[in-house]
Design brief:
antibiotic resistance; 24 helices; glycosyltransferase; five-stranded mixed β-sheet; alpha+beta; cell shape; six-stranded mixed β-sheet; 766 residues
Length: 766
């Protein structure tokens, strides 16, 4: 008989059968949800992935391209100290301080100097310019009878020493950013250590973000119901500064986190810290933002960042937290407290001993003198921009961080600016009618023609109107040396040649023109050297008439006058209108005795990788012989000795120099040319409204030149003359060589072949 299936088992099977449809349904639902969840996640991740991909492109393109738009930097010429040149000990000490050298007990470190009662030592900085790399050098300077002696440490005498070129400004960067770019190797390692210790201790161990920092910030922000803490690493700070706006939203924070991770993925810690050092914002200077530790070091301390002390590093790092709050110029006490907080962090981390900490927190904050940053170079920068505009577009100069090397002499520029301002103020005080008196000055290297200084205003600051370029005025008696050169060039005239200073009448276009001497007198028969030295108008016009006015005009053009003009008799007395810069170019061939004719401003342009982009060479073709130019210059040395520049000779009794004063009709313009062994200088004074003045070339512009020259350690013109010229003693009343015993004689330069052929022994016949 068959066995019956137990009821219990049957019920179980039934139960299972009843449950199966429900279980399958749930599984199907789960599978559907999972499937669509995956699909939805994949679909949703596409925009996120695209966003990350786009951010990645932004990070890489900016970081590997040009990170910053930095205006081109303009540099001065190196300051060349020459053994044997006239120098005062105090002047050299002042120069070293102005160029950022610090005085201490010794000069072992680069950028330091030391002084004793009679000597100065300095460890001069290395530098790179268009001529190559120049090693740092330690030199000892002593002063013997007012002359500089340069020695190496072993006592060997050195011919010259060089102070590195100084940055004098930016091109087209005044309203953007001030920044200097450092490489990783140029960043002082103590500065990196302090920054990391204060701002991001885990910098070398995280991947761009700090999870603990973010968690702490979330707790703080959640507790207070608003964003109060960011938890940012140095990488995040860099991303925020380089790529993002300053808005405080969670979306921007998420972007910052992702970009920080991408930055760390692509680049090394060294690259990131280098970018941070160059990017960090540290101050607002008017309309210009100060970025980077290098620029901050120069602005606040006047020195390269690698020459700062530990407490100075701490001050700059402390400013990162609040550039405006801890600006030492505006809030010195608050800045010092913040600096000491940074030093305390270093002490707590074991990076600073207790004794060093106590010593450093007592250090005062020593900031660079802001007098150094006064805009004395604005007028010179006009010339730089004018020259470079022919070869570089403005956008390149404004953004590509080019380095432009010029010939400006920072000592000459400062001396010229101070002299102009001081003497114009003195003239205005003496005569209130001179209120508003303006001026301009151009100083060139006598031999090379390189422009060493430009002053375009008598005001303290750069005004925007550069009178050295823009004040086109009659040049008065400054036309006379070129006119006398024209006569000497004929071979029929010498400085001894006699000419009559008498009244003349000219019919010019139906109008009668009768020139006059300044003193309204005539002086009879005079020598050419006397006529020029004493600026006799009548003798000069007579000479021009004899050689031909057109010949005078040709000479002016050959000497470099490019402005068009029509020659007529009044031109012989300076009716020709030129700017001070054009007058300087006119005199350059004479001052250099034929070695240069064109004026130079920019020497070379280099990129930020020290690659030479362009060197500026000048043509120096002078259509006159060196002998003729030298003889003309020698004749100009009579003006300080017997003529209208005697006040300058009195100020420098032992200096041999050439000069010429100039005064135009109604004394509307005051001019002066002074030529020493080093510089050829042009000074103009006048009123912008072209009104008559109470000063002449002697009582006005000459004073500016004297003031300037007192502050540049002048050297005499050399005694020697080039081949084809020689100096002879000549009787004053007879065209014969004069023996030494002769009393009535004068020393004059001649083009060989034009000197006297006979000589006199000056014996009285018995």
């Amino acid at each position: 008989m068959p066995r019956k299936t137990p009821v219990k088992s049957s019920r179980k099977s039934l139960t299972q059968a009843k449950k199966t449809p429900k279980s399958s349904f749930l599984k199907r639902i789960f599978r559907i949800l999972f499937k669509w969840g995956v699909i939805f996640s994949l679909v949703a991740s596409i925009p996120f992935a695209g966003w990350v991909w786009w951010l990645n492109g932004q990070v890489v393109s900016r970081f590997e391209g040009q990170k910053w738009q930095v205006p081109s930097e303009v540099y001065s010429a190196p300051i060349i100290l020459i053994s044997g040149a006239p120098w005062k000990k105090q002047d050299l000490e002042n120069l070293l301080e102005e160029t950022g050298y610090r005085f201490g007990r010794n000069s072992q470190k680069v950028g330091w100097a030391a002084r004793s009662r009679t000597k100065v030592s300095a460890h001069l900085r290395s530098y790179v310019d268009h001529l190559g790399f120049h090693e740092s050098e330690r030199r000892i300077f002593s002063f013997q009878d007012g002359r500089l002696v340069i020695q190496a440490l072993n006592g060997d005498e050195i011919d010259e020493a060089r102070i590195e070129p100084q940055r004098i400004g930016f091109l087209y960067g005044g309203n953007t950013e001030s920044r200097q770019i450092l490489t990783y190797d140029e960043i002082p390692k103590p500065l990196i250590a302090i920054l990391i210790a204060v701002e991001d201790q885990e910098f070398y161990h995280h991947w761009g973000i700090s999870l603990t920092g973010i968690a702490r910030a979330v707790v703080v922000n959640f507790t207070h119901g608003s964003r109060r803490q960011g938890g940012s690493t140095l990488t995040q700070q860099l991303v925020k500064n380089m790529y993002l706006s300053s808005e405080r939203t969670y979306t921007r924070k998420l972007t910052e986190v992702v970009m920080s991770l991408l930055l760390e993925y692509h680049y090394s810690k060294e690259a990131i810290i280098t970018a941070y050092m160059n990017e960090v914002y540290l101050a607002q200077l008017g309309s210009s933002a100060l970025h980077g530790f290098a620029a901050a070091s120069q602005h606040f301390f006047g020195r390269p960042v690698n020459e700062l002390n530990l407490d100075e590093f701490a001050l700059l790092v402390g400013m990162v937290k609040g550039p405006s709050l801890y600006n030492p110029e505006r809030s010195p006490n608050r800045a010092k407290a913040r600096r000491n907080t940074v030093l305390a962090v270093l002490k707590d981390q074991g990076r600073l001993s207790d004794s060093d900490y106590k010593r450093l927190i007592e250090q005062p904050i020593r900031l660079a003198s802001k007098q150094k940053e006064r805009s004395v170079y604005g007028d010179y920068l006009d010339l730089v921009a004018m020259q470079l505009s022919r070869d570089f577009d403005e956008a390149t100069l404004a953004t590509k961080n080019l380095r432009i090397y010029t010939g400006v002499d920072i000592r000459a520029q400062r001396a010229a600016s101070i002299a102009m301002r001081r003497q114009v103020a003195a003239l205005e005080q003496r005569d209130p009618k001179l209120k508003g008196l303006q001026g301009a000055m151009v100083v060139t290297d006598r031999l090379s023609g390189q422009v060493r200084a430009v002053v375009g205003s008598s005001g303290q600051h750069y005004t925007g109107f550069n009178r050295a370029l823009g004040a086109v005025r009659p040049i008065g008696s400054l036309v006379k040396p070129p006119l006398y050169l024209s006569a000497l060039a004929t071979g029929r005239y010498t400085w001894w040649t006699e000419i009559e200073d008498k009244r003349l009448r000219f019919n010019v276009g139906g109008q009668i023109w009768e020139p006059e001497n300044y003193d309204r007198k005539t002086h009879g028969v005079v020598h050419l050297y006397e006529a020029m030295a004493k600026s006799y108008n009548l003798a000069t016009v007579s000479l021009a008439q004899q050689i031909g006015f057109d010949r005078v005009g040709d000479t002016l053009r050959q000497l470099g006058v490019k402005r068009s003009f029509t020659m007529h008799p009044a031109m012989a007395l300076g009716a020709l209108e030129l700017s001070p810069f054009e007058v300087s170019r006119l005199y350059q061939p004479i001052a250099s005795q034929g070695r240069s004719s064109e004026l130079g401003v920019v020497l070379a342009v280099m990129d930020q990788n020290d690659q030479l982009l362009k060197r500026f060479d000048r043509k120096n073709d002078v259509p006159f012989t060196d002998a003729l130019l030298a003889v003309t210059l020698d004749g100009m040395t009579k003006t300080p000795k017997i003529g209208t520049a005697r006040a300058a000779q009195a100020a420098f009794p032992n200096l041999n120099f050439a000069a010429k004063t100039g005064t135009t009709n109604e004394q509307k313009d005051s001019w002066y040319v002074g030529i020493t062994g080093d510089y050829s200088s042009i000074v103009w004074l006048g009123d912008d409204d072209n009104v008559p003045l109470s000063i002449t070339g002697s009582s006005g512009a000459q004073k500016v030149w004297i003031d300037f020259t007192k502050n540049v350690n002048p050297r005499s013109l050399p005694d020697g003359l080039p081949n084809g010229a020689a100096r002879f003693n000549v009787l004053d009343n007879k065209f014969e060589m004069a023996a030494d015993r002769c009393e009535d004689k004068v020393s004059l330069a001649f083009i060989l072949g034009t000197e006297p052929k006979e000589s006199s022994s000056c014996f009285w016949p018995f």
